Amino acid sequence: MYAFDIETPATIADAVAAMSGEEAQALGGGQTLIPTLKQRLAMPAKLVALSQIAEMKGVCTDDQGRVCIGGATNHATVAAETASTFPGLSGLAGQIGDPAVRNRGTIGGSLANNDPSACYPAAALGTGAMIITNSREIAADDYFQGMFTTALEEGEIITEVKLPIAEKSNYQKFVQPASRFALVGVFVAKYADGVRVAVTGASEDGVFRWSEAEEALSGDFSAGAIADLSVSADGMISDLHGSPEYRAHLIKVMTGRAVTAAS
Questions:
Q1: Are residues 174 and 132 in the same domain?
Q2: Residue ranges of the FAD-binding PCMH-type domain (predicted)?
Q3: Burial, 247: exposed, middle or buried (Cβ in 10 Å; 0-12, 13-18, 19+)?
Q4: Mean pLDDT over residues 199-224, rounded?
Q5: Across the beta sheet with 194-200, what order do the strands follow?
Q6: What pLDDT score does 1 carry?
């Protein structure tokens, strides 16, 4: 590790002020950032810890049928607090990492980092969530802009995430056993106006929607509806854990499993 300053603001306004000026980096649960600092892949002069901001914690529902989650809320809390209201989301949060990660990592930190194999981006894109920051609201379809890339601007903080509650939903994750990240993860959500299918872990461009499956499932919400579909291997991740063709195959398999489980 190297020398840096750290501030622990108690309000969003204080956090925004602390992020201005010298080179600063927001710190959520630190599950990605701390290892990154240890490897010198990032060397901010100051960390702004968000863990003590009470207004950024907690889970509730609003009058528009959305689950509203504070950006500093950890995965374990999301899993517990949405078990009855949004079981698909609860199941996703309960599969992230291990107990230590789930009790430290936050939804805001995960979405801000936008790891191409992280679980929460699939939930956000798969529900058409609204990402709330200290200065604006960003629709999930506009938020994700590629691997580790988002619409967030310098110094912007995710304060809340609002996810429309689906009629039926499920997340299926083919786990990479060493990291507990998704080799391929698929979040399926059925709404009155159609179905959304979001895929994480597979593409070099990060999380994406499988539009062909969405169209087929909107007409027939069953695994059989995608039986004749296939996913191109072009642009899929290739590494020691799986080839592009293997990941493309898994997308269809995990989508079918998610639909069956949701039904």
A1: no
A2: 1-168
A3: buried
A4: 97
A5: 168-175, 182-191, 194-200, 208-209
A6: 62
Of residues 254 and 45, more confidently modeled: 254
CATH classification at residue 117: 3.30.465.10
| Tokens coding 183 | 């080799």
152 shares its domain with 179: no
What CATH number is given to the structural domain containing 201?
A: 3.30.390.50
Residue 69 phi/psi, 5-degree rounding, is -120, 125
Can you give the pLDDT at residue 47?
A: 86
93 with 217, same domain: the answer is no
Of 164, 190, 221, the last residue of a domain is 164
146-171 confidence digits (pLDDT tens): 999 999 998 899 999 999 999 999 99
* 37 lies in the same domain as 141: yes
What average pLDDT does the segment 39-59 reach?
88
Domain residue limits at 177: 168-262
What is the number of structural domains in the chain?
Answer: 2
Q: Would you state the pLDDT for residue 77?
A: 98
What is the per-residue pLDDT for 123?
A: 98
Structure tokens at 22: 């010298």
- pTM for the structure as a whole: 0.94
Is the same domain home to 254 and 198?
yes
Q: Of the candidates 140, 164, 188, which is a domain's last residue?
A: 164
